[in-house]
Each structure stands twice: as C-alpha cells, then as structure tokens.
Write a sequence for this structure.
C-alpha cells in the first residue's frame, strides 16, 4: 500500500523517445506515442511531456506559444 503523498503510478507508461541532449533548452518536439500525439518540452533542462493537441480545440500545440519557454 502506497503512502498518501506518493503518486499513483499504476497506469504509468514509459516510452523512450530519444536522447534528452537532442532537445535543447527552450525547444519542443512532437511525437506520436501509441497512436497519441505527445509534445515534449525542454524548460531550462527539465523535460515535460504533455498531450500534443489542445483539449479545447484539438489544434496541435507544437507551434503554440508558452509563457515559460
């Protein structure tokens, strides 16, 4: 049984997309993972993977603007 403050990782999916050094700071890249678009963003050395399309309008986020990068 997990402690209260531990994240639920029961549905965690790990997928290797490439080397982190291939995505410079401030850049983003779209991938297709198991049939879904995923946008990976390098924000000051931290990599984040988010859904690749806007949940409201279903537009690709790859060319979108971010306040943090």
């Amino acid at each position: 049984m997990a402690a209260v403050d531990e994240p639920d990782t029961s549905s965690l999916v790990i997928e290797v997309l490439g080397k982190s050094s291939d995505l410079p700071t401030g850049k983003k890249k779209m991938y297709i993972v198991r049939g879904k678009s995923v946008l990976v963003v390098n924000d000051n050395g931290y990599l984040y993977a988010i859904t690749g399309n806007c949940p409201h309008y279903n537009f690709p986020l790859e060319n979108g603007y971010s306040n943090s990068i």
Q: What stands out?
A: Residues 22-51 form one domain. The radius of gyration is 14 Å. The mean pLDDT is 87. The chain has no helices and three strands.
